[in-house]
Design brief:
Elements: E1 2-11, H1 20-27, E2 36-38, E3 44-46, E4 50-57, E5 65-77, E6 81-92, H2 101-105, E7 111-114, H3 119-128, H4 138-150, E8 166-174, E9 181-187, E10 193-199, H5 204-229, H6 238-251, H7 266-275, H8 279-302
Parallel strand pairs: 6-7, 8-10
Antiparallel strand pairs: 1-6, 1-8, 2-3, 3-5, 4-5, 5-6, 5-7, 9-10
Helix pairs in contact: 5-6, 5-8, 6-8
Length: 312
Amino acid sequence: MLILGEVQTTALRHSGSVPRELAESALGLVAGERVRVSERPVSYATSPDVLTGVDCSLAARPGARGVGTLTGRVCLTGGLVLQGSVLAPIDPVAAGRRQPWSHYLARPGVVEAIGRADLPGVVATHLASGRDVSTMGMGAFAARLLDDVQGCPALDRHTPIRARRTVLRWAALHDEEVDGVRVRFTVREDGLRTVFLLLGSQETAEIADLCEDLAMHDWLLTALLSVIDHSRIGVAEPAHSVERLRPAVDRLLHLWMPAARLGGFAPAVWGALEDRPGLSRQWEASVQRIRDQMAMAAALATRTAGAPQLFP
């Protein structure tokens, strides 16, 4: 079994806190379906699953075709981090011809691969495509889900953190002979993040949760570095730099909790990622840099007139 997915992450365009009622209103993408909300260890809301049909080339081998439905959802963490997440289990089928739509609708959330299945080739194509060229239109589907939430009339459209939307594209390939999980995480020059997982039998939901958690923390780190870059540390007066760092203190620093909501194999994968590339090390160093700036600004603000300069 092969599972493909893509997660797009950005900031919710809303300035204030997001109470439960607002989260349920914004993420209520399917009438009559419940928005799942939890408060521990951090506020988290998930929209109902949204399905969309696909019938297109898998692009790995001429003639290979995928027909079925993609599953999408939107997640909101800490009232700030908004994610559009799309996935598709790819099921190679022996039948070489397309079935009526009623056949695929009876298997919601599954894409059948028609023709000779080349799963490693599908993985390679999926992860190697450009940032704006995703397999089976997954990127467009994720972007549409985000637009639907950002267009909620209850939001004030204020952008609390100026950071680029990140795209994480992932593939999970099951291999019964693999003991444990092998993971490869890369950040390409065009900004696309890719994750490849080679693993034994794992639940699709657990894999999707892991990739969304990784995408969220990658975005947090990206946003924090963006705020630091715009704070002009070492160029502007420390007080002015601290003022520019304030959005990070107010909205980002308390959200860094890798794998806090996850169980199963996810902590082991995070452990491997902490060795290399070491996301938490870079996060902690950046947070310490902000705290150092705040301490220096406070020391400069409280020193008495005539006192020797702290930093001549």
